[in-house]
Amino acid sequence: MTGERNDRKSKTEAKPEIRSRILKVRNSLTREERERAAFLITEKIAGHPWYCLSERILCYASYGSEIGTGELLREALSAGKEVYLPKVEGEDMAFYRIGSLTQLARGYRGIPEPGGDTEKYDGRGQEPEKTLLLMPGVAFDKNRNRIGYGKGFYDRFLAAHPELQSRTVAIGYRCQLLEELPAEETDIRPCQVICV
After folding, report:
1. Nearest Cα to 23, choosing from 193, 194, 175?
2. Which residues of 72-143 form beta strands (DSSP E)?
3. Considering all CA atoms of the chain, what is the largest pairwise distance in Å, rounded to the nearest integer?
4. Is 104 helix (H, G, I), strand (E, B) or coil?
5. Domain layout of the chain by residue ranges
6. Bigger pLDDT: 11 or 195?
7. What's residue 1's pLDDT?
8. 3-state secondary structure of 106
9. What is the pLDDT of residue 35?
10. CB under 8 Å to 26, separation ≥6 — which residues?
11. Among 16, 35, 105, 172, whose Cα sits 20 to 30 Å from the Cα of 27?
12. Model confidence at 62: pLDDT above 80
């Protein structure tokens, strides 16, 4: 019943209120719930056709109460995928290749980031169907709308790299999936949303 009330509420709420409400729910997940979700998302993505066909994975290092990506990143590296993670550079972000999670250091808002001194993803000369972008978010809906953290980094990155828009998957916990979210013209929806 609470889930239904929350979904009805999300249709009339503004993005900041939804963000605040869902972050409270996400932050309250137990360690067991987080570990189980990290295992399930790794299993789902590693078995996804787009992942299997991809040579390179653009992902993110989970931070705070985000669904854990550590195991997924280790799996991609051990499978020989090229793995790129984001680094915030001013108002934008760029993805840099990593060979190990030990290359990450605290960056923007304390989020683990690559140093920015390795190969940078630019998309040129690469087949877009062999690249998969996995993105975080605060809330998602059944129409693939996504609310991020409010800075628009992923929207701007995808606007600059339209070749990636057909291979994007937003990942999160089931509690982050709502019936309907407000959306703006500048929002770029992921192709798929997978919440576990």
Report:
1. 175
2. 82-89, 92-98, 105-106, 112-113, 131-135, 139-141
3. 51
4. coil
5. 2-195
6. 195
7. 39
8. strand
9. 98
10. 65, 66, 138, 173, 175, 176
11. 105
12. yes
* DSSP line for 128-187: GGGEEEEE--SEEETT--EE-SSS-HHHHHHHH-GGGGGGEEEEE-GGGEES-----TT-
Tokens of 167: 């291979």
Q: Could you tell me the end-to-end alpha-carbon distance of the chain, in angstroms, rounded to an integer?
A: 20
Q: Report the predicted TM-score, pTM, of the whole model to 2 decimal places.
A: 0.92
Find tokens 């960056």 and name the residue.
107
25: its two tokens: 């729910």
Across residues 124-132, what is the average pLDDT? 88
* Strand 146-147 with 112-113, pairing: unpaired
CATH architecture, range 2-195? 3-Layer(aba) Sandwich (3.40)
